[in-house]
Sequence to fold (619 residues):
Amino acid sequence: MNDSNAAFTLAPAADSPRPLALTPGQDLRGYLSALLGRAVLFFITFSSVLAVLLILVFVVIRSVGFLSGSSIVEFLASQNWRPTAEPPVFGALAIIVGSLYVSFAALVFAVPLGILAAVFLSDIVSWKVRNVVKPIVEILAAIPSVAYGFFAVLVLAPWLQKQFGFSTGTNALNASLILAIMALPTIISVAEDSISALGRELREASYSCGATRLETIVRVVIPAAHSGIIAAVVLGMMRAIGETMVVWMASGNAPQIPHPWWDLAQSVRTLTATIAGEMGEAPETSLHRGALFAMGVLLLLMTLGMNLVSEYFLARAKKAGGRT
Amino acid sequence: MPEEKKEDMPTSVLRDDRKKPNVRTTIVTIDRKETPAQPVGDGCEAAIIRSENFSLYYGSKAGVKNITMDIYPYSVTAIIGPSGCGKSTFLRSINRMNDLIPHVRAEGRLLVDGHDVYEKRTNLVHLRQQVGMVFQKPNPFPKSIFDNVAYGPSLQGVRNKGELQNVVEQSLRAAALWEEVKNDLKKSALALSGGQQQRLCIARALATKPRVLLMDEPCSALDPIATGRIEDLMGQLQRTYTIVIVTHNMQQAARVSERAAFFCLGELIEYDETARIFSNPAQKATEDYVTGRFG
Fold:
């Protein structure tokens, strides 16, 4: 305001203004480059959508032969998985349960830890520490799953066997612990994002009412961020249910439903490990191959459903974040 | 809360008339005796907030420097000044809201009811229960209207449903919002309009039963109608509460306050009765600012 108006020399350009309409006649180059840009971006976007659709169609088509030939009821309700017997039996119930069992057990370990860690990073430690620790946590997601698998088989399995006297170290507990570690970075990262996104206003409001830090976190921060936290949990669950290598190596691969149900020391088998393990042995046009594809369809439906759920909650989290 | 009712309608503005039967004032009442005795008479009440050479630094940068001023009970004190002059910093120092910002350091003394709030043994929870705050942007919790207002009392251990309802109703009435929301107490606070949200935030602050209400540009996000309502509200509230308001709007300061402090570049330039600040200020800078020649 002081002396800025002393030497003001900017003025509108003197020559005739550029045409505002973008038509081939007025500005051919501009018109073509805009068109080309749109076409390229459209093609890239469309091809990735197309890839997903084609995978879905392919998996469904390959499983149709099996699903129409044999009974879906047997597939979903029987626990007998004897693909090489004569006649073969394709009862996937134990395997479906195994997949869900290991994933849920992993979540039981990972969700409380993940939320606590997210709150710790967003509300307890200083910004500096958070900016160092969070990327390190996210690096956990970059470790190849076969490395986790090695750790499960060579370190965790013998340790569990020795420590708790399990008959085998490769069991549901082992697999779900490793899956929990693998799901943690996703859960921590997404939950932390949504908790920090709340901003200072809500926290200040809470403190100004005479709340302690714990009361602020428990009664304001976590409820306000619940959409993002749920989305984080669902994303972690997707990671756990789709994971193949670790469960193949660590779960023991026995197609059985644990009995009693809480006995994590028993071996289980998951959908992903079954597909990965048996795909090579199943002849191209056999029922067995079709059954494996049917498992693929099931997995796809599960992750698709969870994806929709997490999208829903992430959208809600975004909306809530924008409102305040 | 029958005994609180008395508190809402004091017969006189003198502080000695205030009976304090409840426990929420513990830290301060203990230290009250240490306050130097003040002559109590008309127009000469003891200050409830006393700043003595108070400075607050963000790292090495001073937010406010050497502020010395007394804020008197049962009145509205306005803090005016150009942007970045430390008004909000000073206001937020009173209930130590600046603690959330890293590397904050305070010097000098800032007394609330005779207790230096920057002393180590300050009970921040009790301090903030006594010194409530309304922020620039309405910041209701993403909860129901009822839960927003009941938040403070429930933190203080009020579990009884009837008692909570009572506090919520009284607070909403005091904030002139009750008639508009009495049938929608279960509705989300985020569904309210901006002006309603701000009055809800005032109700939320009142429900904690503070003695001092700090308002940090409470009307800057509101339209003139909502602003008018909140100004009316301040006029009523100052009979029971001590209000300190930071505002960019000089007409507002002139309308609502009894005393006004002019801050510039982190320093207190002038502090006097509002009428004098606006009509016959002692400092040239104050005059330039209030007449709009600078800032």
Notes: The CA atoms of residues 30 and 115 of chain B lie 9 Å apart. Chain B has one domain: 2-136+213-290. Strands of chain B lie at 49-58, 61-71, 76-80, 104-112, 115-116, 131-134, 212-216, 242-246, 259-264, 267-273.
